[in-house]
Design a protein that fits this description.
- This is DNA polymerase beta.
- The structure is a single chain.
- The protein is about 40% helix and about 15% strand.
- By secondary structure, the chain is α/β, with parallel strands linked by helices.
- It has four domains: about 5-150, DNA polymerase beta, N-terminal domain-like (DNA polymerase, domain 1, Orthogonal Bundle), CATH 1.10.150; about 155-245, 2-Layer Sandwich (Beta Polymerase, domain 2); about 250-330, 2-Layer Sandwich (Beta Polymerase, domain 3); about 340-575, TIM Barrel (Alpha-Beta Barrel).
- Strands 11-12-13-14-15-16-17 form a seven-stranded parallel β-sheet.
- Helix 6 (about 90-95) crosses helix 7 (about 100-110) and helix 10 crosses helix 12 (about 210-215).
- The two termini are about 50 Å apart.
- The relative contact order is 0.07.
- The protein binds one DNA strand through helix 2, helix 4, helix 7 and helix 9.
Length: about 575
DNA sequence: GCCGTTTTCGGCCCGACTGTTTTCAGTCG
């Protein structure tokens, strides 16, 4: 549903970047940026809006509405084409390097003739950057480091991008009369935070109509391979899609094989071999005495995943656990965790409104939350130390009055008034205890000093946990997938502090963060830490990101009982009382 | 380019940090 909006948002953002790169008016660029964000997060599909409807989107005026209309009818934006003609595409990628903004990118392009990240890397290695006016050795070093960071993303797609694409393909291919079943597999089904390519599996007697349908999808730009069992294409976003078609009776074995992970499959195959069996994407086979060359032996399971696991003496293992991190031993012992699910979540405890940097007003966020059937919902706008949000005591208290008034309007859903505090370098937060005591809930997060050393980071997070008014540590490592490394912190000390003080760690569901990550969750739960799976929504559409957070939680083996926002309101309120100071 | 109990021009989120400067520009959240 939101794909068109995202697409248009990306184009508007590109206009903004190109305006900055060409030295255009910064306010105009910001205006496009704002419109890009607003369009991306808007609840209604752009295709359903008329000109007036478009202008009702905050930040979209006559000019931008015209460009959107132009794009919907012609597939182009003349303004964008004109700007693109002035700047080689690689220059915009240079701007994506952390610490490199439009001014620096334009300078490098103009003075050195560098127009791709690779050329920039070469220039940096030849020490040609330091000669530029205003650029010294430190800056050159930061650029080198920034390129490494950008490249370490490895061209992998974020989970939401891959998921939306996969769901569209599964819907298209699955709707064909020739198709029996269709689903995505691979690391996407395991809900890994980033996805290298998308694996889609289908069953059909005749694969051709399915393969044809894939290659004809509008966002497919290149067909890399087209055969009867496998077709690979590349999409406009650069992501590779593999569609595999297998006979209906092999669905289960193929799903196991293509879901992986590799390590999980190896462990399964080893188990099969021990039992005199052989596991492949075509099924589980009993090896016959003379069947050592070519002959597969008797097929004993392949139709469903359950059947394949059962034939190996195992219960079905949820895809999010299939990483060879002890799931097979746990399955054998009957100790697989009863994983938390989206349906278990009774409320979101970290969300924003347009009082700070959210896109939607309080009323709209609450309406969207109520529609999800939540039993409670916390509004946690930014606190004043994040200066750009211009929060004041008065604004926060006025919002509280508004929250209390609106709370009465929702029968089944209690609205909690909270805030997202900023943990400063010393572990202090924005407001004094007396003011903090007025909130129902406080999330506290790191938004500054990302490069402070390990001792500083550890101390500030532990101190935040020790604050009796802090209930949840938001996005604890502050990583941004493919863009920013996690802070350097002794997480074991933080886990211990959380367990000791009754502070929950967030599993931030934003596809750009997914923080904490799975392995950290596994480590933290061994300390007895509680968790909160939150969306950090800045728009109504972001509330749907919950499933990515739940995916991360499952990958960390979490059960509902370990997640505070699966609890009843009564139990949650008890948790929020924390213990008194000292 | 957007927006208006400051409406049709003149503002536009603002402060901290970093590195390069020798008083400030660029980037970030």
């Amino acid at each position: 549903m939101a794909r068109l909006n995202d697409e248009v948002g990306a184009l508007l953002q590109e206009i903004a970047d190109l305006i900055l790169l060409t030295g255009g008016d910064a306010f105009r660029a910001r205006s496009y940026e704002k419109a890009a964000r607003a369009v991306g997060g808007y609840h209604a599909d752009l295709a359903t809006l008329d000109a007036k409807g478009l202008r009702d989107i905050p930040g979209v005026g006559t000019s931008t509405a015209g460009k959107i209309t132009e794009y919907l009818s012609t597939g182009r934006m003349a303004k964008l084409d004109e700007l693109r003609a002035q700047v080689p595409p690689g220059v915009r990628e240079i701007m994506a390097i952390p610490t490199v903004g439009p001014k620096t990118a334009a300078l490098i392009h103009r003075e050195l003739g560098v127009s791709t990240v690779d050329e920039l890397r070469a220039a940096a290695e030849q020490d040609r950057l330091g000669d530029l006016p205003g650029l010294g050795e430190k800056t050159a070093e930061n650029i080198r480091h920034g390129i490494d960071q950008l490249r370490s993303g490895g061209g992998r797609a974020l989970l939401d991008t891959a998921m939306e694409l996969a769901e569209e393909i599964v819907a298209s291919v699955g709707a064909l009369p020739e198709c029996h079943r269709c689903a995505y597999a691979g690391s996407l089904r395991r809900m890994r935070p980033t996805v290298g390519d998308v694996d889609v599996l289908a069953t059909a007697e005749d694969s051709r109509p399915l393969m044809d349908a894939l290659t004809r999808l509008p966002f497919v730009t290149e067909v890399l391979a087209a055969g009867p069992t496998k077709t690979s294409v590349r999409t406009s976003r650069g992501l590779q899609i593999d569609l595999r078609v297998v006979p209906p009776e092999d669905w289960g074995a193929a799903m196991v094989y293509f879901t992986g992970s590799k390590a999980h499959n190896i462990a399964l195959r080893a188990r099969a071999v021990k039992a005199g069996l052989k596991l492949s994407e075509y099924g589980l086979f009993r090896l016959t005495e003379r069947g050592d060359r070519g002959s597969e032996g008797e097929k004993i399971a392949s139709r469903t995943e359950e059947e394949v696991y059962a034939a190996l003496g195992l219960p079905w293992i949820p895809p999010t656990l299939r990483e060879d991190r002890g799931e097979i031993a746990a399955a054998l012992a009957g100790e697989l965790p009863d994983l938390v699910t989206v349906r278990d979540i009774r409320g979101d405890l970290h969300t924003h409104t347009d009082l700070t940097d959210g896109l939607a007003p309080l009323e709209e966020m609450l309406a969207a939350a109520a529609e999800r059937g939540y039993a409670y919902y916390a509004v946690t706008d930014h606190a004043p130390n994040l200066a750009m949000q211009r929060m004041t005591d008065e604004k926060m208290l006025a919002q509280r009055d508004q929250v209390r008034a609106l709370d009465r309007r929702y029968r089944g859903m209690r609205v909690l008034h909270g805030t997202e505090l900023n943990i400063d370098r010393d572990g202090e937060v924005d407001w004094p205890p007396a003011f903090l005591a007025g909130f129902d809930l406080c999330v506290a997060s790191v938004h500054s000093h990302f490069r402070a050393d390990r001792d500083v980071q550890t101390r500030r997070l532990v101190r935040a946990c020790e604050n009796p008014h802090v209930h949840v540590i938001g996005h604890p490592t502050t990583r941004m997938l493919g863009r920013r490394q996690p802070i350097d912190v002794d997480l074991d000390a933080v886990y211990a502090a959380c367990a000791r003080t009754g502070t929950a760690l967030e599993v931030n569901a934003s596809p750009e963060r997914l923080d904490l990550g799975d392995e950290q969750i596994m480590a933290a739960r061994r300390h007895g830490v509680r968790f909160a799976v939150n969306t950090d929504a800045h728009a109504t559409t972001h509330l749907d990101n919950l499933r990515y957070g739940v995916g991360a939680a499952q990958r960390g083996w979490l059960t509902a009982d370990e997640v505070v926002n699966t609890w009843s309101l009564t139990r949650l309120r008890q948790f929020l009382r924390k213990r008194p100071a000292g």
